[in-house]
Write a structure and sequence with these properties.
Blueprint: E1 6-7, E2 21-22, E3 42-46, H1 47-64, E4 67-68, H2 78-86, E5 92-94, H3 97-105, E6 110-116, H4 120-132, E7 137-142, H5 145-158, E8 164-169, H6 182-194, E9 198-204, H7 215-238, E10 247-251, H8 257-260, E11 273-277, H9 289-301, E12 311-322, E13 325-328, E14 343-348, E15 357-358, E16 364-368, E17 373-376, E18 389-393, H10 398-401, E19 406-410, E20 416-421
Parallel strand pairs: 3-19, 4-11, 5-6, 6-7, 7-8, 8-9, 9-10, 10-11
Antiparallel strand pairs: 1-2, 3-12, 12-13, 12-18, 13-17, 14-15, 14-18, 16-17, 19-20
């Protein structure tokens, strides 16, 4: 069970005049997003969309015959981890040992560190977690004999006999980590199988670097990765290099998860395969980058009403200094801008309660400062006024989550019904 946490004046956008409260009790305050009960900017997650997304992706993975280990680095929220696990997630994925420790606190007992572990302090930390938590299984990535030598050297110096569970990473030329050729892959797999420090549990890849939101291109490039991945899995199986009775085959898949799924179902091996999909951003989805990718997924799969944008940052119009320009109380400290500028998605004029109206189509965010967003609009069209509230959508939820220690959960009528914490 995830422990409760305290909300008080040290938490950005918690009302300074309010008494502290446990997160579990915030719904009893009767606060509403559109009553200006909390200061702006305010990051919120729409509960109905969140619940829908968690259930939808879990059902999708189940229908496709693969397990789901959502990437926890997206939110780094113990409360969201617990919801994903309760919905049936096989485990969770992380990028670092620090992130893994947060997941373990939230109840994770199967985890993939989808990254290379190379540091003594991280080997020490991982070993300590495994020692303290009976039944915990953790696999991390290995992509070179140089990294394997680091692991073996650490184990020898520490006098450790426990072998770490590992996955061999197959990479893409010109992209991120991973073995580039089958020859490299097999040489490393043989060394891992013979190592006293690791157990080769399966094969991993990350396809996100080649996807560019063009179905023809993305299908071709992911298929090429599928072939390389499948070839490596079959070759390792033929030489009996895998240490387990079943083989883990895992890939990312937040942007092109429908194209990833086939590579996770390798047939005809000497032992069963456990395919694991590591999509993470689905939990809140977004209004930009992943939304565009999702439209192509829906076209390829014949889907409708799949994932919904759940994460927004609400701001107030603080100044309209000239025709066509308004300044909002939200900036780079509060919202993602690494892929593209935020976008106005909803608008609530000052004093208006109830369901917010869609933001006018001509409103755009042209720039961000640390604490300001530049809202551009046509002076001949709908004009924002000082005191209006504007919800900003975003691309790439990861880099909005990491700007907040907590986020409010809100109902469709704006009622604040809960809260989640983050542990970046």
């Amino acid at each position: 069970m995830v422990p409760d946490f305290l909300l008080d004046h040290r938490c950005k956008s918690y009302p300074l005049a309010a008494t502290p409260c446990d997160a579990s009790a915030i719904g009893a305050r009767g606060w509403n997003l559109l009553a200006d009960d909390l200061p702006y900017p305010l990051a919120v997650i729409r509960r109905s969309a969140l619940d829908h997304n968690i259930a939808w992706m879990q059902a999708y993975a189940r229908t496709k015959g693969v397990a789901l280990a959502p990437h926890g680095k997206t939110s780094m929220s113990p409360e969201l981890f617990a919801l994903q696990l309760a919905a049936g997630a096989w485990g969770l994925s992380f990028a670092t040992v620090f992130q893994l420790a947060v997941g373990v606190e939230a109840g994770v007992r199967r985890a993939i560190i989808a990254n290379q572990v190379v540091c003594d302090a991280d080997f020490d930390g991982l070993a300590a977690l495994l020692d303290r938590h009976e039944g915990l299984r953790v696999w991390f990535l290995v992509d070179s004999t140089a990294q394997l030598a680091l692991i073996e050297d650490w184990a020898a110096r520490r006098g450790r006999s426990r072998r770490f569970d590992t996955l061999l990473e197959v990479g893409i030329p010109g992209q991120r980590t991973g073995c580039r050729t089958l020859e490299q892959t097999m040489a490393l797999a043989r060394a891992m199988a013979a190592s006293p420090a690791v157990r080769l549990g399966g094969i991993e890849c990350y396809e996100g670097g080649v996807a560019n939101c063009n179905s023809e291109h993305d299908a071709r490039e992911v298929t090429a990765l599928v072939r390389r991945m499948t070839e490596a899995v079959r070759a390792c199986d033929a030489e009996r290099l895998f240490a387990e009775e079943s083989v883990l085959v895992t890939a990312g898949g937040s942007a092109v998860f429908d194209l990833v799924v086939p590579l996770l179902r390798v047939q005809g091996l000497s032992r069963p395969v456990q395919g694991v999909l590591r999509s993470g951003c689905y939990v809140t989805h977004d209004h930009g980058n992943y939304r565009r990718f999702l439209k192509l997924v829906e076209q390829r799969e014949g889907l409708h009403d799949s994932l919904l944008p759940a994460l927004e940052v609400w701001a107030m119009v603080q100044s309209v200094p000239e025709p066509g320009l308004a300044l909002l109380t939200c900036g780079r400290r509060d919202i993602s801008y690494d892929l593209e500028m935020p976008m106005p998605v909803r608008h609530a004029p000052r004093g208006e309660r109830g369901t917010p109206r869609p933001a006018p189509g001509g409103w755009t965010i042209g720039a961000l400062n640390d604490q300001h967003a530049y809202l551009r609009f046509d002076p001949a069209g709908p004009v924002p006024a000082v005191g209006d509230r504007v919800a900003l959508g975003l691309s790439h939820p990861c880099t909005t989550f990491d700007k907040w220690r907590w986020l409010a959960l809100v109902e469709d009528d704006g009622a604040v019904s809960g809260a989640i914490s983050t542990r970046f």
